[in-house]
Amino acid sequence: MLRVLIIEDLPVNMLLMVAILQRAGHEAIEAGTAAAGIALARAQQPDVILMDIQLPDMDGLAATRLIKADPVLRAIPVIAVTAFAMKGDEDAVRAAGCDGYVTKPVRYREFLNELESVVSRRSPLSGFGGFAD
Ligand code: MN
Predict the structure, then answer these.
(1) CA 58, CA 110: separation in Å to the nearest integer?
(2) Alpha-carbon distance 67 to 97, whole Å?
(3) CA–CA distance, 55 with 58 (Å, rounded to integer)
């Protein structure tokens, strides 16, 4: 079981991701803003963070940069959840420090595969490993 922090402002997207995670036996922690998510990450030390890119208070990539600059949080893998499909956007997700990404609309098996893959790769000595290129 993984403890997964979801930072997502749209209730329909949140409900879908929570349902997928719970069905797979994982625990979901929910935050609707970047600020709330970062505070919950500090308080609860989740195994992995799912980060929406468009949030009401802060760009999800900016929030990821804050997490990756924070010694207490930087080891927690961050998976961007994005509607982006362009190569340049993938580069931006990578440059912000994300450990992986999934595209919306999320699909059950692809979503869980990426989650489990990113978490299993986590190591303090490993470099960036979230992309297949
Ligand atoms: Mn959003």
Answers:
(1) 27
(2) 9
(3) 6
Check residue 52 and report its DSSP letter.
Answer: E
Output the CA 81–ligand 1 centroid distance in Å. 9
Distance 125 CA to ligand 1 centre (A): 32
Distance 51 CA to ligand 1 centre (A): 9
Centre of ligand 1 to C-alpha 72, Å, is: 25
Instruction: Give the Å distances, CA to CA, from 37 to 34, 55, 133.
Output: 5, 11, 30
Would you give per-residue pLDDT tens digits along the chain (133 residues)? 999 999 999 999 999 999 999 999 999 999 999 999 999 999 999 999 999 999 999 999 999 999 999 999 999 999 999 886 667 788 889 999 999 999 888 999 999 999 999 999 875 544 444 444 4
